[in-house]
């Protein structure tokens, strides 16, 4: 697995920020466990503040993905846009759950999915996973070595 070789500012900033965002995605269910099952109702406010922070940071992360598109490829920018869209829906379902707890049936699995997508967005920022094809018709770096 090849590390992204480019060490320019936007690449480095993206790498750091994407790890922070993954950590915040991980924090969300931890906080939910506290206000939902551990008798700490105030933690819902921290969950809400974290949600807003995640959304703002995702916008910044997308801008960085766009600036660093030569290193990452434009696909990572597209992935970040998808994550913003789903995070917006996630926040909507979170507020909707105040009046209608049924909405948690979407909010919870979408939270898990967002963690996975956030992790993927971070991994693509650190590693060049695009040249991993072993299909000789579509040689990536390793496949090309085999052919040679
Ligand atoms: C697996 C991860 C998550 C779990 C288990 C979870 C769980 C919950 C629960 C139980 C509620 C309370 C709903 C109610 O009022 O009854 C809630 C509210 C909320 N969640 Fe999440 N959540 C998760 C991830 C996220 C993420 C990733 C975001 C945003 C990026 C988010 C944003 C919100 C918001 C904005 C609310 C409304 C807060 C309020 O009413 O003040 N959640 N969540």
Structural notes for this entry:
With 148 residues, this protein is an all-alpha fold. The chain has one domain (2-147). It has helices spanning 9-37, 43-67, 69-72, 74-99, 104-126, 141-147, and strands at 2-3, 127-128. The protein has a two-stranded antiparallel ribbon with strand order 1-2. Protoporphyrin IX containing FE is lined by residues 25, 28-29, 32, 36, 44, 47-48, 51, 54, 87, 90-91, 94-95, 97-98, 101, 104, 107-108, 111-112, 114.
Mean residue pLDDT: 92
Number of helices: 6
Strand content: under 5%
Spatial arrangement of strands, main beta sheet: 1-2
Residue stretches low in confidence (pLDDT < 50, at least 5 long) are none
Extended strand count: 2
Main β-sheet: number of strands, strand sense, barrel status?
Answer: 2 strands, antiparallel
Q: How many domains would you count in the coordinates? A: 1
Gap between N and C termini: 19 Å
Question: What's a concise summary of this model?
Answer:
Helices cover 77% and strands 3% of the residues. The protein has 148 residues and is mainly α.
């Amino acid at each position: 697995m090849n590390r992204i070789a480019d060490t320019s500012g936007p690449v480095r900033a993206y790498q750091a920020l994407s790890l922070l965002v993954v950590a915040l995605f991980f924090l969300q269910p931890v906080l939910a466990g506290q206000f939902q099952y551990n008798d700490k109702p105030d933690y819902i406010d921290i969950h809400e503040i974290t949600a807003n922070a995640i959304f703002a940071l995702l916008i910044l992360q997308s801008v960085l993905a766009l600036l660093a598109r030569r290193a990452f490829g434009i696909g990572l920018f597209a992935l970040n846009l998808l994550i913003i869209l789903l995070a917006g829906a996630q926040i909507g379902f979170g507020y909707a759950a105040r009046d209608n707890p049924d909405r948690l049936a979407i909010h919870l699995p979408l939270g898990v999915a967002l963690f996975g997508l956030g992790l993927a967005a971070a991994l693509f920022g650190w590693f060049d996973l695009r040249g991993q094809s072993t299909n000789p018709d579509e040689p990536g770096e390793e496949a090309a070595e085999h052919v040679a």
